[in-house]
Amino acid sequence: AQSVAQPEDQVNVAEGNPLTVKCTYSVSGNPYLFWYVQYPNRGLQFLLKYITGDNLVKGSYGFEAEFNKSQTSFHLKKPSALVSDSALYFCAVRDLLYNFNKFYFGSGTKLNVKP
Amino acid sequence: NAGVTQTPKFQVLKTGQSMTLQCAQDMNHNSMYWYRQDPGMGLRLIYYSASEGTTDKGEVPNGYNVSRLNKREFSLRLESAAPSQTSVYFCASSEATETQPQHFGDGTRLSIL
C-alpha cells in the first residue's frame, strides 16, 4: 500500500533558525509527493511538489523540500523560520500505481516557531 | 477567486439527525473529494468522485453518502448522525492529471451531541 509517515508530531524552532519537517514515504513505483500547510480554522494549502527531475524543489513562502530516493524521504526545509510559519504541515503522496485519484496523507506535524 | 467553497462552516447536530454538507468548486476540476480530519490522524478519505456522474468509496465511507450533482458540486450526507462523526470535514478538488495537487475548502466543523 502507498503511505507516508511524519515521525514528529511537533517541531519547535526559534525564529531565524533553519527548520526541517520530516516525511518518509513507502510507495510502489515512482512517488509523486506533495507538501501542504494548514493554518488554524483553514483548509490545506499547497506548498510544493516533487514529480521528477531536480531533487531540491522550491515552493511557496520560501519553503523547499529535498527528495532522497535512497532514504525514501521528502523533508520540508526553510533556511530561516518566521513566527508566521507556525502551522500544521502535511506530507502527501499520490497513488500512481493503483488509482491516481487517491492521495495518502501523513498524520501532520505541528510547527512552532518561537520569537 | 473562490476556489473550493464549503457550507456550512459550523454545525451542531443531535444524534440521529441528518444533514448534507455542500461543496462547490469553480476551477473546472474533474475530481472532487471528501475527507475528515481528526486529531493525530491526518486526513482520511471518505468518498471521491473522479468525474461527473461517478463516485467511489474511500477509506472511511460507512455512515456517509455522496452525490456529484454536476461538475461543480459534490455533497456529503449524513443520514443518521452519530457522535463518532464529530469531526472537521474538508472538500477538495483536483485536475485529472497526476502531477497536480488538490485544492481544499476551509472545512465544516461538525459536532454531534
How would you describe this protein?
The complex is a heterodimer of chains A (115) and B (113). Chain A has strands spanning 3-5, 10-14, 19-21, 24-26, 32-38, 44-50, 56-58, 64-68, 73-78, 87-94, 103-105, 109-114. With 115 residues, chain A is mainly beta. Chain A has one domain (3-114): Immunoglobulins (Immunoglobulin-like, Sandwich). In chain A, strands 2, 5, 6, 10, 11 and 12 form a 6-stranded mixed beta sheet that branches. In chain A, strands 3-9-8-7 form a 4-stranded antiparallel beta sheet, with no helix packed on it. In chain A, strands 1-4 form a two-stranded antiparallel sheet. The termini of chain A are far apart. Chain B is an all-beta fold and 113 residues long. Chain B has no helices and 11 strands. In chain B, strands 2, 4, 5, 6, 9, 10 and 11 form a 7-stranded mixed beta sheet that branches. The relative contact order of chain B is 0.33. The mean pLDDT of chain B is 93. The A-B interface holds A 9, 32, 34, 36, 41-46, 49, 51, 90, 94, 96, 100-103, 105-108 and B 4, 31, 33, 40-43, 45, 48, 50, 56, 58, 90, 92, 96, 98-99, 101-107.
